[in-house]
Amino acid sequence: MARETEFTDANLTQEDLEALNNGNFDYVRFTFADINGVSRTKMIPREHVQEFLHSGVSMYMGTLAFGVSGDITPLKESKLTGHMNGLARPMPGTIHRLPWASSKADVKIGQILCETFWAKSYKDGAHQAACPRYVARKQLDRLKSLGYTLYSSFETEFCVYEKDRETPINTEHAMLSGILTDRHGDLLCDIESQLRKSGVDLQVLHPEYGHGQIEMALQPSFGIATVDQMFRLKDGVKAIAYRDGKIASFMTKPVFSDMGSGLHYNHSVWSNDSQTNAFYDPEKPDGLSTVAKSWIAGLVKHAPAITALCSPTVNCYRRLHSLMAPTKASWGIEDRTSAYRVKNHGPKETYVENRLASGAANPYLVMAATVAAGLDGIINNLDCPPAEQSEEALPLAKSLEQSLEFLEHDDVITGALGEEFVRWFTLLKRETEIVKTKEFDFSSKEAFEKEKELYFDFI
Fold it and tell me: How far is CA 383 from the centre of its chain?
C-alpha cells in the first residue's frame, strides 16, 4: 500500500531519511512522552509527512501535563497563553518501524520520537522545559561536559491479565518457571520478535515472582537511546499483548496483596570515547573508583528527593518499604535491600542498579534524576557513606506527597531539572492523582481500588 514520496530534512540524520524513504511507510506517527511517560501521538499519512518533518505537528500546549486519566492540569502558562498550541518536533536518530501498529499486512506504519516546543509567539518557540526527553538530554549534556557518557539499561517488570482486567495469566509464585515460560511462550516470543523488528533489543525475558508478572531486560547502550527503547518497549508490550487478547499493565502494584513491579536502572559512567568504565578501578579493594564512590554519594544524598521521580504514583508506595524493595537511602554491593545495589565484576560489569524506580516510572525521568544526583557527587567530591543499612541512612518517603515535599526542598535536584519541570510535575501529581485518593485510608481496599481505576489501563 506504500505511496511514492521522497523525504528531505536538514535536521534529520541520513539514517533517518533512508529509513523514511526505504521503509515504505504508509503512515508515520509523531510521538512524545508526557510527564507520566504515557505516549502522545499524531498519525500522519505518507503524503503529508514531509511538511511536518521540520516544523513539527501542533498539539495542545499542556499535553505534557495531562493526568493519567485525561485530566487537564491547571498550569499558569495555560492561562497566560489562552491554552495555545505548541509543537512536537521530530528528534534525529529516532525513526523506527511499528510492526504491531496495524493488523493489515499491506499497511506499514513508522514512528519518529519528538520533543515539545512552545509556539513561536511564546518564549520565542523554545523547548518546553518540562518535556521529559529534553530534561533527560540536558543531564546527559552536563555529564558530557565533564568528559563522560552514560552506559545504561533497564530491567522492567509488568503484569499481564486476561481481557477482564481482573484475572492474571497465572496465579502461581513461580519465578523463572519453565512451565510458565512454556505456557506463555507464544506471547513472550511475539513480544520479543515484534520489539526486535522495531529496533528494541531485549537481552533477557522471563516469568517473575508475582501473579502474571514478567521481567524483561534491555541490552545496555549509550546515551538517550536506552531510554528511547524503554519508552517504546512499554508501548509495544501493551499493544502486542492487547492484540494477543491480553492486557499488560506497568502499574506498580496491581494486586493488593502481591509483589510490586520495579523498573531497575542499571548504569555506569564511561569516558566520552566509550572505551573506559570510569566506575572501575582495579587498584581498589572493592574495584570501585573514586568517581564511582562520589557518584554513589550523590545518589544516596538525593535519594529522598529523586524517589518522587522514580516512584511517581500513589500506588508506588505499596512497593517501597516491602520485601526486597528500598526503605532507606542506602547502598550495598550485591544488596537487594538497598536503594542502590552495586555490581563490581570487572571493567565491563561494574555498575550501579538504581532500585528506587517502580514499574510505573517514566524512564526519561528516572535517567534524569539519577544523573542529576550522581553529578552532584562528582562535581562536589562528596564522601561516600558506608555500604550498609546504617541507622544514619535517610528514610525514604512513605507516600507520594512526602516524596514531592522532599523533591521541592532539594535545591540541587530542582535546580538541575528546572523550575518549569518541577512545578508542572508536582502540580500534576497533586491535582490529578493525590486529590483523587486522599479521602481513603491508604491501607484500605477502597484506596487500592481507586488506584487501580487511575493507573491500570494507561500506565
Answer: 29
Q: Provide the residue-wise pLDDT of the chain in tens; the chain has 459 residues.
A: 555 566 677 678 888 888 888 878 999 999 999 999 999 999 999 999 999 998 899 999 999 999 998 999 999 999 999 999 999 999 999 999 999 999 888 899 999 999 999 999 999 999 999 999 999 999 999 999 999 999 999 999 999 999 999 999 998 888 888 888 888 999 999 999 999 999 999 999 998 989 999 999 999 999 999 999 999 999 999 999 999 999 999 999 999 888 899 999 999 999 999 899 999 999 999 999 999 999 999 999 999 999 999 999 999 999 999 888 999 999 999 999 999 999 999 999 999 999 999 999 999 999 999 999 999 999 999 999 998 766 778 999 999 999 999 999 999 999 999 999 999 999 999 999 999 999 999 989 999 999 999 999 999
Coil, helix or strand at residue 274? coil
Which cell numbers in the block locate residue 43? 498519525
Which helix or strand (DSSP H or E) is residue 141 part of?
A: helix 132-145
329: cell is 537511602
Pairing of strands 213-218, 109-117: unpaired
In the block, cell 570510569 appears at: 278
Radius of gyration of the chain (CA): 21
User: Whose grid coordinates read 545504561?
Assistant: 152
d(CA 39, CA 155): 20
